[in-house]
Amino acid sequence: MQLIFNQSLKPYNTFGFDIYARSFAMAYTEQDILDSVDASHELNLPLKVLGGGSNLLIRKDMEALILKMEIDGITSSELPSGDVLVRAGGGCDWEKLINYAADKKLWGIENLTMIPGKVGSAPIQNIGAYGVEIKDVFHSLRAFDLQTGRFNEMTAGECRFGYRDSLFKHEGRERYIITEVTIRLTKRPSPSIRYEQVEGTLKRKGIQSPNPIDIVQVIREIRRSKLPEIHEVGSAGSFFKNPVLYGAEAKRFTVENPQAPVYLINDVMSKVAAGWLIEQCGWKGFKRGEAGVWPLQALVLVNYGKATGDEIIALADEIITSVHKKFGVTLEPEVNFW
What we know:
Elements: E1 4-8, E2 20-27, H1 30-43, E3 47-50, E4 56-57, E5 62-69, E6 74-78, E7 84-89, H2 94-103, H3 122-125, E8 128-129, E9 132-133, E10 138-145, E11 150-155, H4 156-159, E12 176-185, H5 196-204, H6 212-224, E13 234-238, E14 244-246, H7 247-256, E15 262-264, E16 269-272, H8 274-280, E17 287-288, E18 291-293, E19 300-303, H9 309-327, E20 336-337
Parallel strand pairs: 2-5, 3-5, 4-20
Antiparallel strand pairs: 1-2, 6-7, 7-12, 8-9, 10-11, 10-12, 13-19, 14-16, 15-16, 17-18, 18-19
């Protein structure tokens, strides 16, 4: 493991903030993680783990040892049931895993294409899109526990998944370094295409019996039509979670706003499209200085060049206030703040 001092993190966060880390290292193996823990103690610096930097807002220079996860590799093994366990390193690009599964005609994660980041970040956020979440296919993960100094295997139950939520965002926050994730995919056709955009695009293309590659290509087309290229315009993708409403609250909202996109999660929970709420408040395409709201998708806050993290946060706070005033619904950021 090689330590670098005063490293710019601009290439390592998709907002493109030119923030510096006191110390920086890459982890290509589990031994690199152990070495980085020792180094953080020797330098008397906290250890913070960085994945793809795609769900992160950094506000100031980091007095820390930043460990960039690069543990790569994908392997798979077939079960007697015909399902397939696919293991990927925590530093593997998520889109690389999407391509691997699609090429092998394995079903389960095709709806999750074009979510930027690393495999190790997927269970932390319980990433989801178009009716699918990582918890739906999750089998287990391997992680280093900074409290005990040991590597552990963790099941879905231990990860405590919720909507865009998990153990790793609460008492497990900054305690575990995820080195490998195993998901359970299937060879049996099981497309999830109930979202109108997905189903409509498949029909327009004349695809009646889609395979995983078809779904991946369709969702990429949809997402490219409304999201900025993260290597060209700084963003963290969806900045806010879709707010979840319960029981009477959900009923009240739908009666008062019959045109709102509301999606049933289960018998007592529904989620509202945060982008729609923001757009109804007039924020879509808004720009102040170098900070703004993407003109094609109000859910995305962007750095047009030299915006600071504090400027993005100030804009987010204004949006939260206006949405609550108009709809009585509270938006929560999906991105992590450093």
